[in-house]
Amino acid sequence: MSEKLTKDTILKELTKILTEDFEIDEAKITPQANLFEDLELDSIDAVDLAVRVQQFTHKKISPENFKQIRTIEDVVNAIDELLCE
User: Fold this and answer.
1) What is the C-alpha to C-alpha distance for residues 68 and 1, in angstroms, rounded to an integer?
2) What is the pTM of this model?
């Protein structure tokens, strides 16, 4: 990615991915929403989400960082950190 994305832009793209690819109700997607409890993603969904994030950023989230992700805000922060590298 050539331009710096804001966290708001990252959240909008993440929301688009979750609503289109995972059929999650947009109203449920808030920064505090837990991916597994609130949005009901399972481990396979989490891997699919990691792949979609990689396609979006053209960078890979390390498995160690990915294991720490629990909320939408965690995903946004992880993408923001990736794009700053």
Assistant:
1) 24
2) 0.88
